[in-house]
Amino acid sequence: MSDDGPLSRILLTRVIEPGDETGGRWLREYGVREVVRRLRADGATALPGVGEKRWAGLRARAGHADPERDLGAAARAGVRFVAPGDAEWPTQLDDLGDGRPLGLWVRGRPSLRLWALRAVAVVGARACTEYGAHMAATLAAGLAERGWVVVSGGAYGVDGAAHRGALGAGGATVAVLACGVDRPYPRGHTELIGRIAEQGLVVGELPPGEHPTQRRFVLRNRVIAALTRGTVVVEAAHRSGSLVTARAAQRLGRFTMGVPGPATSGLSAGVHELLRGEATVVTDAAEVVELVGDMGELAPLRRGPVLPRDLLEPGARRVLAALPGDRPASPEEVARGAQTSEDEAVARLYELRALGYVERHGDGWKLTRQAMISVRAGRSPR
Q1: Is the pLDDT of residue 137 over 90?
Q2: What was the pLDDT predicted at 5?
Q3: Fewest C-beta atoms under 10 Å: which of 96, 174, 193, 265?
Q4: Which CATH number does the domain 308-377 belong to among 1.20.1600.10, 3.30.420.10, 1.10.10.10, 1.20.120.80?
């Protein structure tokens, strides 16, 4: 096994767990070939940073590893292995330092490196509400329509909704799994993950056939954060795993965003805690792209509806605002309230009468009944 071939790294994916910074330091300081030699050679000196029991366990794993078998199984499942230095390797994963993946198993046709250049993570609660599922799907569809790749973890809840939203929009999505990419997990998402593999990419650090564990789920989240320009959290309780992704994104200098929910919802409590820190509130795909996109990709200005009174001349609006809502007022009183002359006030009152806003009442003026109702509702009085 040579340093420039994939077999040594493939062997190490059976030996060193994802995110093991001690193993990453070995590769950086000694090189892949020397690490593999020491793990497999009888009587070889143990590498620093581990005790005797752990070293013996690692050597036992190395003894049972068969990288050629793994490579063959991957090829039969339509899976390829991408290692650091390969043309398809996303270099932003190098930001993980000694905790970067040994390599990634990739299922699907597109280039992972090219897709990761314009990718956003959408993550959140597994037991999400209908609101959370709706927001995740809507955000993902909007991002996909704008040419962004949606990355998530393939899990139930927000993850699944995000993947479906992107797929439904005919867009690109990537599922990062905490197991072998040839064995979809959760099993209830077998069909979904199959669709992702056909239309997008399924990636993971673990070799074919490997099963997920709680720790592997947690460590998988750092890959989601590192692959993308930013992470959006849609519903998360205080102990949600999606917060691990958000915090990893913050450590890596990526954008961290949150979709707010009801203040009384425990499933939004973790998101709200993020938003009290350095995370940014987002409510749709345009706001996400404004943050993570290129210069000029701005969200539209948010404005309320234009009301009929907004279209009045400024002088007429002042006179209208000076009329009390519960009684008639004299022209002199209206003029004082509008800070104008009595002649100007009278002229404006006649103008407003023609538009249906006011009516004469003896020597005074008052709002029409229809005007009072329509002004509150934002409609024209006629």
Answers
A1: yes
A2: 64
A3: 265
A4: 1.10.10.10
